[in-house]
Structure formats: structure tokens, C-alpha cells
Amino acid sequence: MKLSSLAKALLASSMLFTAAHATAAEPITVTGSAAFTTDYLFRGISQTGNNAAVQAGMTATHESGAYFSVWGSNISFTEGGLEMDALLGFSGKAGEVAYDVGVMHYGYPSADAALGYDEIYASVSTMGAKVGLNYSNDYFAKSDKFMYLYASYGTEVAGVGLSASLGMNKFDSAAMMSNALGTTGTDDSYMDYKLAASKAIGGMTIEGAYIGSDIDDTECGGGLCEGRFVLTASKSF
User: Fold this and answer.
1) Which of 18, 106, 119, 164 is deepest in the core (most CB within 10 A)?
2) Are the C-beta atoms of 109 and 99 separated by less than 8 Å?
3) Higher pLDDT residue, 16 or 212?
């Protein structure tokens, strides 16, 4: 885990956003966040070998609804040990329905460039419920076409945030799923899930979540696909 590389990348991003904010002033809002989590799971699969992660990101949002974000985390499956993602999107509302569309690049500095990939995404949400679709023409590690369809719901009860999500990961073939995830089964798709509760405490948000997938344990080495409890502390600024 090379936190120094992550820190340098995030510092550079911070300087970029600060300069943009100083130039555009009122029309642009810059926000950020930092988090420590006991495990970084992406679509139900650990990206850190079942270990902890430090993560941070920044977003510049124009008053029109256009935004640009960068986000980073340590990971365990590349030599550089770092994931850096960038998003360019547009969000807004039509009556009571909010929408969000954009493109996202998943990058892995100091690793084989073939690992990186792009996704286009779109979602709609209302009254706490959200549905979305992500699509990649050539997914992680050049594993061909991929689609992610998900639904989630969140609410608050007595000051505690409660949420649940369910996603379907669909690959072009079982061979491509194996290429992307290292699994050994014959399926070309799998489901991931998350159940979470969160609470704001002392200016931070503490979340406890149970996250996992329906991939058989025998088909996914190192227990990376098993369901587990994850504790995350995050701070927005």
C-alpha cells in the first residue's frame, strides 16, 4: 500500500480544483471527502485483498449541473497499488425525479495500461429510490463488453441512515468474467449486494455495512467475493 503516491495524486488534484475555483469563483463549487474503510469492495469484490483502504476525492460542480470528479484509493492487485478514477458528468432534476449521466475512467497508475477502462453511466432517483445502468465497451483487463444494472433505496430513521442496494454484473461470456475477476466458474454474470446503516458523529459519518456477492466461494480465490462486515469513517469538506 503506497499511501505516499495516493497523497501526491490527491494534492495535485486539490491544487487543480483550487485554481479552477479561484478563476471561476461563484459559478463553481468545490467539495471533497476523505475516508478510511476496513475493506474496499467494488461491486461485491475486495480490491485490497480483504485489507483496509484510505480513500479521498474531490468534485468541481458548475451551476449548470456539469461536474468533474477525481477519486483515489489504495488497492492490492497492481504493482503501483493505486486506483485513480475520473468522472465527467451532468446532473439535474425534472420535477421530483433527479438524473445523472456521464462517463468515468478507471485508472491504475504504474500498472499495465490494459487494466484501465471507461464506463458510461446513467441513473434516475426519486423519494430515496434509485436505479442506474453502467456500460463498458471493453471492461477491466480488456474483458470485452460489460453491463452493470443496479437499484438502491435509502432513508433515515431517528437520525440513522439506512440503505440497501442490489446490482447485476453481466459479462459478454464466462471466459470474460474469469478474465476480469479471476473466477473459475461457468457463469457470465453475478449479483452483488449491500446493506448499510450510517450515523453522523462529531463531524464525521460512520457507516457499518454488510457487502458481498453471490459468487460461489470455491470459484473465487482468497475469499475476495465472500460477504463481510465493513466499517467506514468518512469526512466531507
Assistant:
1) 119
2) no
3) 212
Q: Which H or E run contains 14?
A: helix 3-24
Which one has a higher pLDDT value, 70 or 16? 70
Task: Give the Cβ contact number of residue 141 at 10 Å.
Answer: 15
Residue 233 C-alpha cell reads as: 469513517
DSSP 143: -
Nearest to 183 by CA among 222, 212, 144, 147: 222
DSSP string, 25-83: -TTEEEEEEEEEES--EETTEESSTT--EEEEEEEEEETTSEEEEEEEEE-SSSSS-EE
Q: Is the pLDDT of residue 76 over 80?
A: yes
pLDDT in the model for residue 79: 85
CA 134/CA 99 separation, integer angstroms: 14
The pLDDT of residue 172 is above 70: yes
Q: Mean per-residue pLDDT for 111-117?
A: 90
Q: Give the whole-angstrom CA distance, residue 127 versus residue 39.
A: 30
In this structure, what are the phi and psi dihedrals at residue 152, rounded to the nearest 5 degrees? -145, 160
Give residue 26's Cα distance to chain centre. 29
pLDDT the model gives residue 163: 98
Tell me what pLDDT residue 41 has: 98
- pLDDT for 206 beyond 50: yes
3-state per-residue secondary structure call for 150-215: EEEEEEEECCEEEEEEEEEEEECCHHHHHHHHCCCCCCCEEEEEEEEEEEEECCEEEEEEEEEECC
